[in-house]
Structures are given as structure tokens and as C-alpha cells.
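Cont'd.
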Amino acid sequence: MKILTQWLREYVPGISVSDKELADDLTLRGIAVEGVFDLGSHGSLFDMDITTNRVDAMNHYGIAREAATIYGLQLQPLETALPAGRPGHIYPVSIEEPALCGRFTARVLRGVTIQPSSGGVAERFRLLEQKLISNAVDATNYVTLAMGHPTHAFDLDRLEGGIILRRARKGEKLRTLDGIERTLDTEDLVVADERQALALAGVMGGWDSRVTEETKNILVEAAWFDPVSIRRSSKRHLIHTDASHRFERGADFNALPVASALVSRLILQAGGHQEGEMVDVVIPEAAARTAHRSSIAFSVGEARRILGATEDPAGITAGAAETILTGLGCTLQKQVQSDEAYQVTLPSWRLDLAGEIDLIEEIARVYGYNRFRNTLPAFAGGVVELPWAAREAVLRRTLLALGLSEAVSSTFVAAGDAAAFAPQPGSFVPLGNPLSEEAGVLRPSLAPGMLTMLTLNLNRDVENAALFEIGTVFGGSTDRVEERPALAFGITGSTGAHGPHQPAQPVSFYDLKGVVEELLAKFASKLVYFDRFPGESGLMPAWLHPGRSARAVVDGATMGYFGELHPDEARRRKLKQTIFVGEIYLDRLYRQGLRHPMARELSRFQPVRRDFSFIFPESVPYARIEHAIAALGIPELRSFAPREVLRDPQGKLVPVGHYSLLLGAVLQSAEGTMREEQLQETAQRIMTALHAAGGSLRG
Amino acid sequence: MSQEAIPQLAAYNDAALDAAFAALSQELDASAQSLTSAEAVESFRLHWLGRKQGRLKAISEAWLKSAPVEAKKQIGQRFNQLKAEIEQRLESASTGTGSGALDAEAIDITLPGTRRALGAEHPLIKTMHEMVAVFQRMGYSVGVGPEVETDYYNFESLNFPPGHPARDTQDTLVVANQERKPLRDRLLMRTHTSPVQIRTMEQQPPPVRIVIPGKVHRNDAADATHSPIFHQIEGLCVDTNITFSDLKGTLDHAMKEFFGSNVKTRFFPSFFPFTEPSADVQISCPFCGGKGCRKCKHSGWIELLGCGMVNPAVFGFVQQKQPAYDPKKISGFAFGMGVDRIAMMKYGVSDIGQFYSGDTRFLEQFA
Ligand SMILES: [Zn+2]
């Protein structure tokens, strides 16, 4: 909103500070001046940002009132005297919807001259870069700028029989001032005559009854409309006007006669006269809700309880509170029992003031926020961490150490992705007003977002990417949305340490599995294994390569799925290279405690290494071999791990359909150095078990 | 060093041996003159001690072959002595300053090292954790709440009545198919972390000190400074005798903790339906010390927080479940800030969308 300081100073002639200081003082009181522009001999232009609750300050007079209160100066009354009118009959006004229109005034002006504005009005419109239309229309706009109340001028000769405030009829049409013909809703309040709707009340006037160059007689409307009704009509018809903006924030019920008089004075400057008296229809219930609200109790002690200590040791005094509230238009009546308790009557233009706390805010605001001290409250109580905070921190630290960068992706995915990635078929939640089709559904999985991010990297010629995301996924239905924490990770390109001294290693399934294993190793789980067991949908996730993906199981519960992206999905996304991706259900993982490391006695005796080279048919997975050896329960077996896997499609080194496995065992006893025969015997047991598992010694 | 002839031994008596070995010693001295480079040391070693063509071996073999049995032991001892002498010279050459045998093992240390890249912390998450930690040190517990909220928790209980213009400032993304439900039960993407204030108070009587980090959503078109997804940190402190000056002191302290002790704060009246009095907080620009720079738009100040005293109307809503929140007996303050904007300033990020892109080139800068 634009404000002229020259205009402000006309209302508060006593202001002695510069425009710049005035801007600072207003801003510190919450009447924010965002920019000050020098207009030379015309003072300054303030670019203002008035908070939505302060509709009373969205005009020159309202801001002048703030300035007068800040400096303790006198605010000039508005000049409303009109030249003597000619007698006439009372213009008929009927409010059929008293809940929607609380007050309506009509003033008849006859013999007016419609011409371009001149003088002060034209000058101020020019400074404010406001469009000039004609003296009558400009008069209504000028008064809104002056004191905030929107008014409307009708061409009286286009009206038939009198004004009626009613709801629009079903299907009723109205051509509004912007030239658009609109179909009205029965919820809309209209200003009508006996024949038809003339204006969408409080929002926009009508085309047919507008003032034109031919207009001779005018009806000046100043009214008070129900804020919620105006807001609904404005939203319904997508018309946001200066008038609707003000009415929906609550106009000043008592300002109508003043606004009507100010507009009429301006129009009559070019000739004409008022006929009859201003018609003023008041709905008492509306007056009681606004202008005649009951007074509220206020005590300075309560203000001190809420506001606390000031830099000035005197603090908030009764005197200061009285001066501030009176300046803002309140009337204070001291209570008999106490020096510091009052009954306060509220000004009609401050519908935002309704309770004691509102008055306390006014006092703090005008007194100056920065005159309060900075104190710290005393507190006795413990700091509680989120139950999963430590687990999440460990996950994050581990993933970062493994070389994955944290990413944050969109909360929303396309409907197709939601259907394809939802862990439970059909369990996902669409938005009612999505930003775009690609963001139409709350993500049921972090995997599609991860794929989108990796795709973006590949499309920007970044060949190596390793990302993870910790975030919320959404399931259920639009009736009941379930939120769960999840973790996704994705790797593509090459991985690990590489450079001129060692070649880059292309990422494989086992890199991703290694990440999962490291993560799960942080938890105190008893049994972790990986398999290809179907998920809740009855299948392994369809977005994973069926032969190169796995389910992670911890103590019997599915923790998630990971592996190579399904080639169909990769093709659909036009991916140039293989992506490995996975998702962990953190709500399940967080049920596991973190592993608490315990030191164990280190053996003083020499460990002995033994290698076993065996050939197995492809039908024997490594897990079976691992289980077979574990089942032996050899206490001296410190470790047992595959060291090399070899396949030969030509069948020269290893027969086709078989693979060769080099297994390394470390044997170490806590009791003593192992004797040769003991070693022999243990090695024999291992070999027997390997044979039993389907292996044969490699020749 | 060219292959020299093997000297002949004149006799096997002590004098002859003395002379012969003295000559060898001299030859050794001569050839050890220039042991200044790794190459020279190596060739000296090969010349004298080489396994196949080493001079020591060749001479000793020749001399021992023809020596009478009784002289062999003596000759052997003298060769051992000579060998020790050669080894000593080699050792002193390699341990000598700036030269020696280890130089032969030198590598090009200017080639880049083999780096095992760590993952990069997300600047937004990092900023959020740091800010939360500031309040944890001030006695605040961490709280969270759902990202899909009801109209009641996101608006109504925070004193945004149905149909109120204040709702316009928070364009809301709504869940589909809510029209049949009563307004208060309709589901939407929370537009701020403030609903967690209500949820927390409903679950525990005062005192409350809670800091709430989280993701929020608005129906905003994306540009360099707006994203439909962003992050907020909310704080709430409720107890007996909590005042506006406590709010000022708390935020002043927190901003000094986060941005540095030179930072100043100033408070401006503002409007939020759920706080009263409400304030906007500016901090003196931590990047230019208040002198004016691009980050503070040359004003020396940066607007960073919204805050205020908890509106008694909000306590009224909470009292439906927790009667202890009697606005006549207790009071409190709440504050909120946008994490994205703070992270953008702190790390010089010009486009908020980069936080949500997963672009590795962007993220790796923060490793
Ligand atoms: Zn600066």
C-alpha cells in the first residue's frame, strides 16, 4: 500500500520528525514502512506492508492515528460538512438479509457534472500512480485512500424503485464493472433495485448502473457487509478487489456517514446538490456486534505478567497504558477496587481488538518492543530426545561414512509411480489440489524419488552418484493417512576409492548389500539374513530385477528390499546405466535396539589360517555353505569367509553350471596354541561338511 | 663401472695378502668417492656385491680357488672384513643426508592421493540439527508431528477460524476426497510446524519446552526463493511467569549461539493468529557485521523469525484436553523460523530448489 506523508501530516499537523524518522517509528510499532521514496516538495511516498489484522490502518487517516498516538499529538477530525441540500423524499432502502448487510446508507445527489478530476485529488492520484477515471468514481476511491471505507456511486437514473439488499436468485446474471457477465450464486449478497441485481455487494459494482459521462444524478452508497459473506463471494467469483479486501477484514460500522459525506463533498465540488437526507438503515444486531461491543476488563498487572521486564525500571505504568489506549480510540473507565484495573470500550474501527490480550499487545507495540529487557526464564525439567534420535543419528553417520550423500526429494510423486512403488497395493493418498500431475500423490515409498534424483544426475552427465534419503512415506487412504519413516539409498556408476593408483570398480549388487549389512550391523539384532521372499504384495517389488534383488530380514521381520533396478523400469526412465536402489522400513528397524559393543578377551595364541578350494554346483547358494559350517559349532573357528568366487563360461577352469569357491578359515584357541593333529581334525570336519553341502575339492 | 680385471695374488704370506688387500681397499675408496645419488649407490652395490658379477665374489673365488688350504681361512676372514667395509659404506651412504639407497625408492608424491570420498551432509539437515542443538542446550526437548494434519490442528486450534483471511497467507495443499468430512477433520499437508505445539500441550501439562523441526508444504509455485516443500523449526515454552521479555532474551541468546556472539536482535510488531503480542525478529547481519551486504540487502539487518506470546485463545483450545493450560495462571511463547532461508544464507545457495534436487554436483560441495 502506498501512503503520502504530505497527506498524513495534513491529519496530524504536529509531527515534527522527518519522513525517514516517521517511517522508522511506524515500523517499530508494527505499521511497517518497507520503502521511503522522496517526492521532493510533495514529501515522501511510503511503501507499506500492513498486517492482515489491521484493516483500520490501510488508509491515510488510520496511519495518521498511529502517528498521533506514538507522538502524543492531536489527530484532526475529518471535514464532513456538506452544502445545504434541497428537500426531497426518502429514498427507499430495504435490507432483506440483515445477517449479511448490517448497515446501508444512501444519499441522493442531483444535477452533478461528471468530468475529469482536478486539483488536490488529481495531484494525489498522480503521486500515488492511481488511475483517474472521473470525478465521481475518483471521489469514492479517494475517500477509501483517505479513511479506508469503500463506497460506491450509482447512476441514479438507471435504478428503478429503490435499493434492496438480497441474495442473488438462482441463475441470476450480473455484468460487473470489469465488463464480465457473471452468473450469481444464491449465497451471494447483491445490491439490487426492484428489477435486477445492480452490484455484487462489497465486491464489485455493476456495469449497467455505473456512472458515465452522461450521468446527471447519483446515489452514493456506504454500507457495512458481513466479512465472511464478502470473502465467500470474492472467492467464489475469483474477484479480489480493494473493497472486498477491506470488507472481509471487517470495516468500521460507524464510518458510513463520514465516508458518504466525504464522497458527496467531492462530487458536489463540480456542481449539483444533495436531495433529501441521507437514508441510514441500521440492523441493531450488527451494531451490537461491532460498534457497540461490550467493554472489556483490563488490568495493568496482567500486562506486566505477560510482558515482563522493561529497560526502564518504572516499567509499564498505569499512566502509560491509559495514554496509549486512549490515543488508539479506546475509552477507559477506572474500576473502583483498583487503581490499575479498567473497563475499556473498544473503538468501532478496531474489530481486531476483542480481549484483554489485544490491549496488552497494543500497549507493548506502542510502548516499543525493543524497550523490553532480554531475560531468560528459569526452568526445572529434563531434556527428552526423540526415542529414535540415536538410531537415526547412527544410520546417518554410517551412510555418510560409506560415501553416500544425503538428499531430500519431493514429498509427492506421480500417480503411476505411487501405484508401482506402494509397498501395499493401492495403499496411497492422492492430493486434492496437486501442484502438477507429476506431484499428484503423497509418496508411498522413497524409491521413486531416489530414482528421479539419480536420473537427474545421469541426465546431467554425472556418472557416479551415491545418495540416501531419510523421510516420511505415506500409506493408507484419503480417510486415514498413515505416516512412516523410511530410508532409501541409490548408487550408480563406480564406487569406492579410485584414481591413478587403482582402477574404478563398477557398482554391483554387492556394494548395495554391503551398505545394508553395515547398517544392520549397528543394531542389536540376533538374526539377519537376505532372501527373495515375496513381500506383502505377494511378489518381490516389481521395480527390482527379480534375479538381482533381495529382501533383508531382521529377527523374522522384513526390513526392506534392495537390488538392481528392473530393466523395464530403467528403460521406462531412459536410464543410460545400471542403478542399484533400495528402501528400508525404519519404523520396523527402529524397533531394534542399537548394538552395544562389549569387549571380549583377546586370545594370546597364534591364529592359524587354512584355505579350502571347492567346486559347487550353482544350485548351492553360499548361505547353505555358511550354515553348514556354522552348524559344526567349532569354538576355535574365529572366522570363515569366501575369499574368491570363480566361474568360467567356457568350462575350462570350472565346469559349466558350477562355481569354484576359495574359502578362508582362521582357527585360534583361547586356551592354547593348537596342535597339528587338532588342526588336521578340524580341517577334516570342515571338508566333510563342504562335501556334504554338495561341494567337491578342486583338483 | 667397467668390468675390471681380477688382480693376481703374488704369494699367500701375510705381507703379500696385506699388499693385495690394501690395493683392494684403495680401489674401494676410489669407487666410493661419488656415492651421492641413489643410482650411484645401487651401481656401487652391484659392482662390489652383485650376486652374479660382483667384484668381491669374483676376486674371492679366484683367490680362494688357487690358495693353499692353510691360507684359505685367513683369506676368507680378510674378505669378510672387506665385505663388512663395503656394507658399512653402503649403509652410511643411504643414511646420509638427502641421498642414499632409499632415494631409489622415491615415488612421485605430487600425484593425487587415493581418496575414499565421504558422503556429504545435506546443508539443510545440517542447519536444522545445529539450530535444534542450540535449543536443546537451552533445555528444550525435541518434538515432532505428522506431515498430514487435520484442519483443526493446522488452523482452527491455532486461532485461524474458518473463513478467516489469515488462512489466505498459507495456501494449502489438501488431501483428496475430504469434502464429505466436517471441516475440522479434513486432511491437508501441514503449512507450518505449529500444529505440534497443540499436540504437545494436549499430551502433557505445563511446563513445556519443546523445539520442533520438520518438513512443511504450501501450494506455492516454485521459484528461486519459494518451494512448495520447505523446513521449519518451531519452539514453544509454557510455564508460570513466562513473559515477553523472556521470549526476547531466549531468541537473542539462541541467535548469538547460532550466528556468533556479536549478533544483535531487534523485534517488530507483527501478526500471527496464534500469538499475541506477535513479533518479527531481525538479526544484525552476521555476514557483514551490520555494515550492509548483498545478503542483508544492504540494510545491515536480516529478518529471521516470527514469534510471540501464546494467544490465550490457543490455550483455550488446548484446555479442552488439558485443563492445566489456564491462561490466567500460565503463559508462554512460541517462535518459528524457516530453515531453508537460513541455510541458503549460511552456505551461499541462490536457488532453494537445489536443496530438493538430489543433484550430486550441488551436494558434494558440502562434503
Ligand atoms: Zn550484510
